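Private note to self, pasted from the team thread so I don't lose it. Backbone tokens:
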């Protein structure tokens, strides 16, 4: 398909459409992927915790984040995984000097909350509050542990504003980006 690269990171806040984009890329190219959010959700579930509670645990027990982040770094450097999805994947690829495309999906707070209401079956107010709390807790944790927040644009080679476009349009933009590399 004319794409000569095999590694891309996809990052964005919860509800930004990263998982949907990863699925689209993997289907299009028959690529393999790792989903950092799913790793996070699985760990929370295995511990019988809500995402907010697990985020709080991560804020007081750095070893949890360090273990999860090391899993992502291994995939960034391997010769097997094509797409790494995580809020920190772009940062880790940047810091590891991985030769890959690093995409950030930017989506407004209200649109992200609307998407979370559909995915999680909660009210808009609950989604807004949960997203704000998670963002605050996570950003404080990342700043303290690593000295950066995920949405700092420094590491990203491309930013797609996905607020007012469909998942298909986001995929088309990503395919254009990958075709230009």
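Design output:
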């Amino acid at each position: 398909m004319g794409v000569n690269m095999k590694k891309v990171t996809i990052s964005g806040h919860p509800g930004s459409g990263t998982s949907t984009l990863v699925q689209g890329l993997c289907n299009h190219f028959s690529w393999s992927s790792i989903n950092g959010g799913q790793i996070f959700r699985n760990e929370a579930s295995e511990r019988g915790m809500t995402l907010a509670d697990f985020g709080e645990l991560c804020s007081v027990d750095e070893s949890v984040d360090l273990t999860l982040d090391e899993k992502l770094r291994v995939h960034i450097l391997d010769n097997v995984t094509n797409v790494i999805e995580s809020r920190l994947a772009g940062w880790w690829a940047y810091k590891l000097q991985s030769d890959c495309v690093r995409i950030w999906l930017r989506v407004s707070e209200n649109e992200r909350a609307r998407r979370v209401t559909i995915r999680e079956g909660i009210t808009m107010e609950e989604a807004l509050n949960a997203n704000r709390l998670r963002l605050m807790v996570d950003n404080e944790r990342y700043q303290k542990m690593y000295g950066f927040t995920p949405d700092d644009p420094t590491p990203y080679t491309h930013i797609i504003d996905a607020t007012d476009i469909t998942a298909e349009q986001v995929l088309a933009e990503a395919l254009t980006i990958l075709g230009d590399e």
